[in-house]
Structure prediction request, 249 residues.
Amino acid sequence: MIVPLKTAEDLKSIRKAGRIIADCHKEIARRITPGVTTLEIDRFVERFMMERGAYPAQKGYKGYPYATCAAVNDVVCHGFPDSIPLMNGDIVTIDMVADVGGWKADSAWTYAIGTQTADTSRLLRIAKLALRRGIAEAVPGKRIGDIGFAIQNCAQQAGYRVVDLFTGHGIGRFIHEPPEILHRGSPGYGERLEAGMVITIEPIITEGRPAVQIERDGWTARTVDGSRSAQFEHTIAITEKGPVILTRS
Prediction:
């Protein structure tokens, strides 16, 4: 498996896409309230990107018809945006990929709709923490298993599970490039990380069992037991100075 390494100029291009995504997530946080639909958010995201010279790269990817994926409550990922109003107490993950000049960045964020319960706040807090723990391991000389172990350990210590059917990945000219980034693993195992790699780290943390089923649309993945999940994702550059988050303002 050949992992394409990025130059400093390549990273600047990916960062442009990443900043557009970060700014878009900030705007979503202001807009995503009870009564709003995920289809409205999808249309906003597409318009936001296009006005800034980006293209929503998920739209048309392997036939996917929308600019975003919208995962509400027990949907773990790849949910279709729809016209059902979000309700107070829902959680929803909005996942997007921006393409600027052929270079791509990818980020997902879970939003609590309206009033948060203590259980919701804790789930989102641990999901964010798991992402941060994984990012901290994304340094040259470490291995993919170190990232996965940090994430898995964080989730399990808090009483949650990682939905391990879905992984992170390399990204750059293409949405999915090698290597595959598992969100579970053992320290010291897996491919060695090198400066110049650009990867996504995107663990999905669930309150219940990690088993999922794919719906008839061929995309939407939902927990079998109906438990909720949260996901936070960044695009990360691995550098000699440490991990650099490219999907941050």
